[in-house]
Task: inverse folding
């Protein structure tokens, strides 16, 4: 009994000592001065009238240094903003438009608290409070600070709305986030169509060119057909990327060890991985230039698309052609090096229609229409992709003309080129 009592006392002593050490070890709070972190060098600015807005998204390393907290681990991403108001009017910044579920400054501070460190935690509270972007933008002033948003990888659409007494201004930024290795980072510029090779087309020429394309993407050797080509996108970097990122599409991680392991773990545990890699398919003798996806809460289900830069332009604007399909599960297969593959929804036209709705709702469409690609397949006699999944389609290709001016569905022009059969 005495031994047990002594052991108990010793245990309490060691526990108390360890807690003191642990508390002391966690009590430090040493954020790096913002000007030394370096993120301000990447800030982008836009001006409308008497307002100028600048924005930048901090990387994981920058956020860790600037706030001495592992914010990315907490799924929190700081966005730095600056609003210069050169007018005599009062304006207010509306952070909800940037992220409807943004974190308050004291919420993030609380998540960054140290254990048993009251004075340090008070410093943390004061620091985060001082760093936040406040709502008020007084006349002839410059307001700056952080909005703590939900974490994205690769790229982020930053929408900044500023409301005045008689006006509302919106500033949209598509900002790249350092540290993410996307599949499009691996594109070889030498394999893309060169400027001297591009053929510029008018509307009738584009319509004819789309209808003359091959039915499907292929394997690397070009000897077997895969998913059908069913979408064409016309627009610049300033229209294509914002249209998709604003609508919730995410870049895709490059196919490498860490992303494959994350995908495997998500598959085993039934969790989500918004940036899961997408296998390469081929067109024009090269793998896709861009892959995007809109994932659900598990890695087995997602909408995903692939796009290739075409050797033509439309009135000087780049043209991209590709395919979209919906993954509805996973299955075993001997036709993949990983012995698994996503099962696609056989109704690929439904997924094409989903993209049309998505672009309408994101107000990114200026005009759209359909061209007959000439390769229909029926439910009774379906075609099959490279992993053997059946699909059926009316063979139509949707052509989307994108704009950087928010356009309501009522203002979008429907091009009555060819009408898909009723369903």
Result:
């Amino acid at each position: 009994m005495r031994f047990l009592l002594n052991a108990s006392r010793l245990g309490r002593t060691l526990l108390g000592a360890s807690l003191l050490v642990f508390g002391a070890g966690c009590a430090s709070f040493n954020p790096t001065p913002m000007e030394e972190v370096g993120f301000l060098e990447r800030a982008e600015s836009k001006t409308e009238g008497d307002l100028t807005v600048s924005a930048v998204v901090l990387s994981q390393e920058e956020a860790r240094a600037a706030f001495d907290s592992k914010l990315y681990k907490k799924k929190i991403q700081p966005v730095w903003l600056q609003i210069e108001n050169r007018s005599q009017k009062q304006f207010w910044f509306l952070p909800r438009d940037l992220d409807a579920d943004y974190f308050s400054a004291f919420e993030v501070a609380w998540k960054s608290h140290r254990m048993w460190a009251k004075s340090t935690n008070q410093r943390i509270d004061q620091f985060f409070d001082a760093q936040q972007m406040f709502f008020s933008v007084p006349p002839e002033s410059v307001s700056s600070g952080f909005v703590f948003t939900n974490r994205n990888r690769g790229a982020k659409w930053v929408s900044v709305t500023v409301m005045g007494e008689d006006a509302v201004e919106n500033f949209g930024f598509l900002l790249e986030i350092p540290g993410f290795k996307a599949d499009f980072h691996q594109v070889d510029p030498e394999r893309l169509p060169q400027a001297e090779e591009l053929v510029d087309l008018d509307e009738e020429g584009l319509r004819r060119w789309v209808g003359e394309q091959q039915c499907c993407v292929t394997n690397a050797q070009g000897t077997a057909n895969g998913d059908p080509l069913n979408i064409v996108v016309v627009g610049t970097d300033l229209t294509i990327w914002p249209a998709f990122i604003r609508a919730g599409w995410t870049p895709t991680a490059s196919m490498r060890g860490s992303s494959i392991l994350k995908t495997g773990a998500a598959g085993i545990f039934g969790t989500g991985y918004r940036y899961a890699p997408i296998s390469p398919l081929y067109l024009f003798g090269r793998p896709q230039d861009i892959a995007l996806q809109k994932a659900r809460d598990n890695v087995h289900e997602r909408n995903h698309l692939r796009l290739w830069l075409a050797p033509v332009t439309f009135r000087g604007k780049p043209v991209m052609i590709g395919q979209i399909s919906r993954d509805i599960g996973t299955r075993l297969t001997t036709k993949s090096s990983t012995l698994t593959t996503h099962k696609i929804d056989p109704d690929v036209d439904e997924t094409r229609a989903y993209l049309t709705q998505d672009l309408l709702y994101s107000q990114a469409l200026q005009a759209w229409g359909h061209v007959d690609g000439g390769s229909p397949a029926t439910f009774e006699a379906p075609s099959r992709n490279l992993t053997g999944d059946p699909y059926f389609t009316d063979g139509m290709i949707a052509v989307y003309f994108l704009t950087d001016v928010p356009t309501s569905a009522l203002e979008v022009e429907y091009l009555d080129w060819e009408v898909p059969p009723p369903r």
